[in-house]
Specification:
single chain; mainly alpha; three-stranded antiparallel beta sheet; disordered N terminus
């Protein structure tokens, strides 16, 4: 009779143990914490590479845009520096689509500013040929840039809509003012509806108002086409921009005419109204 032999527990060796003892087989299992650390470390490297690429793209785009804006006399030297800061925040924080929207705003304001320039010179409301100053640039674009920065920090997509609405309002306000002065001899004060000279703070005209709405719609459409915001937010961006444009007129009539606020402060607040309105509508 053959008896089975069972080795003592202290002497038992599995095939896996023997293989590892000879230098082969499966390596010892790493603690779970170590594996998670390596995975996170790999993900961080991908994130950093992506971030660096986006950073350099934003820097290059910013330099080129600022140089071109200055070359066509759209902004002064100080305005170019301020615009560069805005462009960088928009491109890095909100993506390349935000930069394209910024370009559309710049083109609209550049064309409308030069439209009917001689007439606006006679009215005394024409912008300087050297371009908009740093304060003017920041008054119109600082809110959009700030929203892009908040987007980068929080990741909340509502700030994309705020960027779109603020940029659309900046275009609407400038286009409505410039074309209104170029095409209308008189305007109506938005608070009392009395007739005032074109270019008066708080004055509105049908030509300027319709042109402003069209500009808001165009910039908002560019936001959708570039993927900055989805199609479902197109109407919200337009409405918020028009609300900001109307707020600009009220602020001009109630506060700017009385010397409480200057034009830069009014422009800043109107873009802020547009951004907040857009955020509240979704």
């Amino acid at each position: 009779m053959v008896r089975s032999f069972v080795a003592p527990a202290a002497c038992r060796l599995s095939l896996g143990h023997l293989a590892r003892a000879c230098g082969g087989g499966t390596p010892p299992r790493q603690p779970p914490g170590r594996r998670r650390y390596k995975k996170l470390e790999f993900g961080a490297r991908i994130f950093l590479v992506s971030d660096v690429t986006r950073l350099w793209t934003a820097i290059i785009v910013t330099i080129v845009f600022a140089a071109l804006a200055r070359w066509v006399r759209g902004v002064s030297f100080g305005g170019a520096i301020a615009g560069a800061g805005v462009c960088f925040l928009l491109c890095f924080g909100a993506g390349f689509g935000a930069f394209v929207v910024l370009v559309s705003v710049f083109v609209l304001t550049w064309i409308s500013t030069r439209f009917g320039y001689r007439r606006k010179q006679k009215l005394g409301t024409a912008e300087k040929l050297d371009g908009r100053t740093a304060l003017q640039v920041l008054a119109n674009l600082a809110v959009a840039a700030g929203c892009a920065g908040l987007l980068a920090l929080t990741g909340r997509t509502v700030f994309l809509l705020a960027v779109s609405a603020a940029l659309a309002e900046a275009a609407a306000d400038t286009v409505s003012s410039e074309l209104g002065q170029a095409r209308s001899a008189n305007a109506r004060l938005i608070t009392t509806w009395e007739e005032v000279a074109a270019g008066t703070d708080g004055g509105v005209s049908w030509t300027g108002t319709l042109a402003g709405i069209a500009a808001a719609a165009l910039v908002s459409l560019v936001s959708v086409l570039t993927g900055l915001v989805p199609l479902k937010w197109l109407g919200v961006s337009i409405i918020a921009a028009v609300v900001g444009m109307i707020a600009d007129s009220f602020l001009g009539a109630l506060l700017e005419r009385r010397g409480v606020l200057n034009n830069d402060a009014v422009n800043f607040l109107s873009t802020l109204v547009a951004a907040v309105t857009a955020s509240l509508l979704v």
